[in-house]
Amino acid sequence: MPDGGHFQLGQSFPALVLNADFRPLSYFPLSVWAWQDAVKAVFLDRVSVLSEYETVVHSPRVTMRLPSVIALKDYIPAARRPAFTRFNVFLRDSFECQYCGQGRPTPELTFDHVIPRSRGGRTTWDNVITACGPCNLRKGNKLPRECRMFPRQVPRQPTSWELQENGRSFPPNYLHESWRDYLYWDSELES
Ligand SMILES: [Zn+2]
Predict the structure, then answer these.
(1) CA of 95 to the centre of ligand 1 (A)
(2) Structural domain includes residue 167
(3) Would you say residue 59 lies in a domain?
(4) Which SMART domains does the entry link to (predicted)?
(5) How far is ligand 1, taken at its centre, from the CA of residue 134, in Å?
(6) What total number of domains does the chain contain?
(7) Spatial separation of the C-alpha atoms in residues 160 and 145, rounded to whole Å
(8) How far is the CA of 177 from the centre of ligand 1 (A)?
């Protein structure tokens, strides 16, 4: 059990997980492990500990501070081609309607086929875009030139790197101060 000044039941002490190149394994969702998994990985010698919480855990033989930032010892290469999923389409488009440019919470976002399915459009990276409800309704089954609605960016398959970069702009709900050095290079230098 964790022990220390402020441990409360239910507190999770997540560890930020970095790849062997010291960049987060993923930005969005941010790669974090529960403390139990982080501690186990330390004992299996699969990760290096870069930063720790004040809080310690005891086992009968060992006392250790909970890791707050860990780095994998073996590099995991990013998938070269990102999966074509609803979430990744939103992420590619930075959660913004590609017609009016408004950012909205995910539940209010929809998908639009630039060339409607009824007109032969396919469900692919280069024909599906993020749209808000009103724009989607307005566009309906029309071709872009019929309603003068053109996507702000020509849709295409993003690289994994592009998706990761987009993910960086969405700060996670939980952010321990020891994580900042590994997440926000530019903002840290400016503040
Ligand atoms: Zn819109």
Answers:
(1) 11
(2) no
(3) yes
(4) HNHc (SM00507)
(5) 6
(6) 2
(7) 31
(8) 36
For residues 131 and 106, membership in a common domain is answered with yes
The whole-number pLDDT of residue 170 equals: 74
Ligand 1 centroid to Cα of residue 148, in Å, is: 13
Pick the range with the lowest mean pLDDT from 121-135, 158-172, 174-188. 174-188
| 59 & 90 share domain | no
Q: What is the pLDDT of residues 120-130, one digit of tens each?
A: 999 999 999 99
Residue 163 lies in a domain: no
CA 87 – ligand 1 centroid, Å? 18
How many angstroms separate the Cα of 168 from the Cα of each of 16, 171, 176?
14, 7, 16
Q: How many angstroms separate the alpha carbon of residue 179 from the centre of ligand 1? A: 35
pLDDT of residue 120: 95
pLDDT score, position 2: 52
With respect to residue 162, please indicate whether it lies within any of the assigned structural domains: no
pLDDT exceeds 70 at position 88: yes
- CA–centroid distance, residue 139 to ligand 1 (Å): 10
How many angstroms is it from 142 CA to the middle of ligand 1? 15
> What gap in Å lies between CA 7 and CA 94, rounded to an integer?
37
Q: How far is the CA of 133 from the centre of ligand 1 (A)?
A: 7
Q: 22 and 61: one domain?
A: yes
**The domain spanning residue 129 has which CATH number?**
1.10.30.50
The CA 132 to ligand 1 mean position distance, Å, reads 4
Nearest one of 174, 170, 172, 186 to 53, comparing CA atoms: 174
| Domain extent for 139 | 86-156
Token pair listed for 141: 């089954």
